[in-house]
Request: fold
Amino acid sequence: GENPDQLAAKKDFLTAKYGDKIAGFVEEPLVATAYMPVVQAAIEKGDMNAEREAALALAARAGDAFAAANRACTAWDFKVAIEPLATNVTEGDAEPVRLSAIRALGNLRAGGGAALATVVKTADAPEALRVAATTALGQVLASVPATGDEVEVLVAAAKEANVVGEAAMHALGMVANLPPPAALQAFEDHRLDVGTKGE
Reply:
């Protein structure tokens, strides 16, 4: 509910402060915020300096903003945020940037499933990222049909006897139109694991 003057002021502020750092800057302030994660890619990779650190913090905050956004709001097309967020999920330079992007995709439920699945199936990725990506993938697949191996990735993750496996079971419960063979496979695998633990 900001008025046009406030929006114009915010746009001017963002343009003055970050305009030269953002590839593909677009008019609407919130959409500009969607592109804020691109700041991190625009800054040269190398030694961490104050400006780069600020850019990474900004990218994380941009992700957090989308993680808390009201996705029912029809005034903005959140889909423009999906690609930059998905890029940060897989290529983000810092764990907080990746984590905030993961949570944002889970909240927006408009896409990015392939990027989330990549994190879920990366066995050596930090556990916190894998758990968050697993949960977010379930949230995305509750609203958006799988485009690739997202369901299979969750089924495979559900076999893990750890927090990722637990998150994957919950995520599978969120998937809309889960194919019956996948559901059966996941729950059979899980039941076998549970049954053999005590032996």
